[in-house]
Amino acid sequence: MIFAPVSEAIEFIKAGKLRALAVTTATRLDVLPDVPTVGDFVPGYEASGFGGIGAPKNTPAEIIDMLNKQLNAGLADSKIKARIVELGGTVLGGSPAAFGTIISDATEKWGEGDQVRGRQG
What DSSP letter does each residue of 59-80 carry, written as one string? Predict the structure, then answer.
């Protein structure tokens, strides 16, 4: 048994070389619609990652806005969107503020340990 990113395991699953028991996302994945979520067996369970692009802290707002506009346009492209979904991802897009909220929420959810806060026990 292994917990592996869908993007790394999907080809093995599709080829019948690996059997997916469940996904750790909150909802079933479009690419694996018959595979249940862990939350179906353990209510409330959800563990998923995300990716995004950041810029240095003092990057001018006009550059951030231009980058955001271009990234969202790329994510809206049907070929790019289809490939991300094919690899088990979910396309979100959105604003820099929305991405900041995602980062903040993830930090709150997963940042409970002393190691994350830089404390030593």
Answer: --HHHHHHHHHHHHHHHHSHHH
pTM: 0.70
Which residue, 45, 65, 47, is CA-closest to 55? 65
Condensed to tens digits (0 to 9), the pLDDT of residues 58-107 reads: 999 999 999 999 999 999 999 999 999 998 888 989 999 999 999 999 99
Q: Residue 47: helix, strand or coil by DSSP?
A: coil
* Measured CA distances, 56 to 42, 60, 94 (Å): 39, 9, 19
SS3 category, 3: coil
Alpha-carbon gap, residue 91 to 112, rounded angstroms: 27
CA distance 25 to 7: 13
Are 114 and 121 in contact by the 8 Å Cβ rule? The answer is yes
* Rounded-to-integer distance, Cα 26 and Cα 90, Å: 12
